Amino acid sequence: MRILHCAFLLGLGFVAMSQAETPPGLHPPANVSAGDAIAVSSSGTGSATFYLIGPGHVAKRHFQAGETIQISSGEIATAGTYQAITCNGQECASTSFYVTPNRGAELVLLVHPSRVAVGEPNAISAVTVVVDRFQNLALQPEGVTFRAITKESAVSSPPQMTRNGVVWTRLNSGPKDGTVEISASLGQLSERRVVQQVAAEPCHLQVSAEHKGDRVVLQTELVRDCGGNLVPDGTIVTFTKLDKLGRSTVDAPIKKGVARTEMGFGGPATISVACGVVVGNDIHMGGPR
Amino acid sequence: MKYRLALGLLLATLLLVAIGWLQSAKAAGVILYAQKTPEEAVQSLLRSVRERNWPKAQAQLANANQVDASAFIYDLAGGDGSLRTYSTLEDSELSVLHQNAGEALVRVKLNWSTAVGSISDTRDLQVVRNGTDWKVFWPVSQVPKLPAQVMSVNYLRWDVVNRGPEGEWGTASIDPPKVRIISMNAVERPDSVIVIGELVNEDTIPAYVNVNAALIGANGLEFREEGSFDKVSHILLPSQVTPYRIDFPQLRLNQLKQVRMDAKVAVVPASADPVIGVMNQRLETDALGKKVLAGELVNQSGQTVNIAHVLATCYDDNGKVVWVSDGYVDRALLPMTPQPFAVDLPADVAARVQRFRVMANQYTRVGS
């Protein structure tokens, strides 16, 4: 009887030993999206340790082999390859799974330049990057619509599909100065930027001169580009007076559309005006009145 | 015999003490005896100027009673935050141009040590005999005063609003202004190579610019790099053109294979005022026989410009930039008051100059 009891206990010990040595296994889901909580089933018996190593997160916890391991959404927020490892004593088993980006939840819109001259072809570039709510590049194709809105008009493009999360377009600048609002939209998502359209080089620069005692007042007409847009205030207009005393120059900024200056006047003089590469009319003035 | 030696030693001691006292008094500018020559009179006056002892300096003038003290001090010590107020008289060079029994004309070159380097000022001083003494006759000048008036200014300035370092990636930012180097020329001088040229702001906002040049040797490697420092107008308004000049001392042109230019540009807050006109620009020969580009600066705003800096670009008959010269004006630019300037040109360059363009930078103390 005593021998039988010992044999039973020994057998039980062997069974227990054989169960503890069963290596644990892990079975993650085939398709995992970033930020979606998952359950990883495990096999084996006994207490074990679970490790999760991913591109943006590392976790460790104890579990009972054979139970299902819950991985929360925060632990797989970053897209990429994750490695799941279980260890039972000296034995470890590992498996890896890929977390794909989730659906687009945010738009990043890069618009360049922030200022552009009017009437320039393909002068504005707009690049949209679609990311999910965890800032992973949304790789699955999505339809993005671009819109350009000015005071006078609004145009929009047909939906353009992203490739590897990116889509771009090029736009001509409009004929009138002012702001143009560029927006990109994806479903309910929308992002906008503002580009300043400014006048191009001046056209038909005209200066007039008026005597005031021993001085002469020089003033341009409204300085416009060839499309009729006012050249921005602050643009330098150079007035030059050439007389017997030498050359006199004044770099005067345009204010309220015109540039103005005063110079001394003491004899016949030739007055000219220039703005950038554009040269205006010359004025020949006689002696003092 | 014993007393004779003691007496001799005592006399010698007294003589040496007297000589020492006279020398120390002379060094201190104390007039102990008559200024026997025109040069001595001018030197004595300049010692007082160097010490900034204005009452003593004025007392040495032949026309001390006619010279207004404030005008005299303004003339020599400056005012209105001008460069002269940050200057000290380092030394002077004198030469007598003309002398007779009663008067003399002395040319004096005053070398001022200033915050931006050495600046020379050449004056012809009339010195008159007064008994056995010579005294400087100071030209009577008045501190320039404008009649009281209100000048309306359409103040135009640009401010920059940035999102700060915490700005999100991909949000709109301000593009740096478009600035283009429109010309570059490397010229060889006896002791250096100088890189000169012009750049233009092609944008509609002001630009802060700085120009650097890197020299590439025959082996294709960069061996020296310099910046334009103050020989460029750092703030460029839209469509404004500035010359630049970068000096490479102790270098020959045959040591370079290539010059690599780099213009660093940033958007900065700026003001379009004050406007400074450059009047009556002309090439002439100064009193020392040097070729200079001279003219007058006129501050067309109602705000005093403390320090003005002149940048001159010289072109040959093909429109190529052949020289860039600069100079500081040590007088403040008062509103609507012409202030003369002159920048040096090498004689060989002056002979080739067909056209020139002068621009003025300005430094204004806030609240002045």
Explain the overall architecture.
Chain A is mainly β. Chain A has three domains: 2-100, Immunoglobulin-like, CATH 2.60.40.10; 106-198, Immunoglobulin-like (Sandwich); 202-285, Immunoglobulin-like. Chain A is 7% helix and 53% strand. Chain A is built from one helix and 27 strands. The longest helix of chain A has 19 residues, at 2-20. Chain A starts with a helix and ends with a strand. In chain B, a hairpin with a 3-residue loop joins strand 1 (88-99) and strand 2. The mean pLDDT of chain B is 87. In chain B, 16% of the residues lie in helices and 43% in strands. A four-stranded antiparallel beta sheet of chain B has the order 1-2-3-4. In chain B, strands 8, 9, 10 and 12 form a four-stranded antiparallel beta sheet that branches. Chain B contains five helices and 19 strands. Chain B has 368 residues and is an alpha+beta fold. Chain B folds into three domains: 26-137, Nuclear Transport Factor 2, Chain: A, CATH 3.10.450.50; 157-161 and 174-271, Immunoglobulin-like (Sandwich); 276-363, Lipoprotein YajI-like (Immunoglobulin-like). The A-B interface holds A 108-115, 129, 193-194, 196, 198-199, 232-237, 245-253, 255-256, 261-264, 275-276 and B 154, 156, 158, 169-170, 172-175, 200, 202-206, 237-240, 272-273, 275-282, 295, 300, 356-359.
What CATH calls the topology of the largest domain in chain A is: Immunoglobulin-like
Order of helices and strands of chain A: HEEEEEEEEEEEEEEEEEEEEEEEEEEE
CATH class of the largest domain in chain B reads Alpha Beta
| Secondary-structure element series of chain B | HHHHEEEEEEEEEEEEEEEEEEHE
Helical fraction of chain B: 10-25%
Counting helices, strands and paired strands, the structural category of chain A is: mainly beta
Biggest β-sheet: strands ordered side by side in the sheet of chain B: 1-2-3-4
Measured as a percent range, the helix fraction of chain A is under 10%
Radius of gyration of chain A: 38 Å
Kindly provide the name of the CATH class of the largest domain in chain A: Mainly Beta
The backbone outline of chain B, from C-alpha atoms, is: globular
* Ends distance of chain B: 77 Å
Report low-confidence residues of chain B grouped into runs of 5 or more. none
Number of helices of chain A: 1
The average pLDDT value of chain B, as a whole number, equals 87
